Amino acid sequence: GAVVLALWIALVVALRKRSPWREFAIWPVVALAPVLHLVPIGEAAAERFLLIPSIGAAALLGTLAVRRWGRVALGVVVLAGLAGSSLYARTWHDEGDVWRHALRHEPQSAVAWAALGDSYAHRDWPDKATPHYRRALEIAPDLTACRLALAQSLDALGHAEAALEESSEAVRRDPDDPVALNNLGARLARAGRVPEAAKMFRQAVARAPNYAPALRNAAFAALEAGDAEEAADLLERARRADPEAPGLDGLAAEVEAARR
Prior knowledge:
- By secondary structure, the protein is mostly helical.
- The chain has 14 helices and no strands.
- The model has no long low-confidence stretch (mean pLDDT 88).
């Protein structure tokens, strides 16, 4: 990013002050600077960041084509651009096509493999999602979200024990992740191992005191252990953290019944 910015600034300086191209050349510098990752912006990659900067580059090239080679040359460039854009637009046909395109250019991208797996999971195809998640984890074993997604796919395929193993591995690799802890706790609870599940929920709450899913599940575990008062307290905290969290109303009825 720094190299691109420096080269473009050099181009601007090289142009004569009265050159009509100068203002076109300045535009990409202004528009590119915020998205060159000189300072992290929270996005790994996004082509939309180049749309506004490309206005200046296109205007500069267009002016050059008209002045040096004439309108015919400019027309050829525009038609070529339209044809190229039409072909490239097919990449954006759906989520899966986007990530398959990414993998053709970057086959060792764990993020792209995981995202392609997500595209299948979103369409309720866990059998197709699973191998893509596995490939992502071969490249980057510490991708916690990907490992939890793999566990979910395995569970959907009826492999509950394998799903539990993946959730356990996620916690082993990232013991401070509240989502992983809560996920493992939920799987332990479904396996009938409620005391172990309660421990995971408590750890998740300790690391993220306002994480509503963990608070709700911890309340469930407390209720299962016969401590209705603690369950009520945890449930109230879950409501304050996220009043719309699923399952709160049903659990509230159970807690109220236990307190009576």
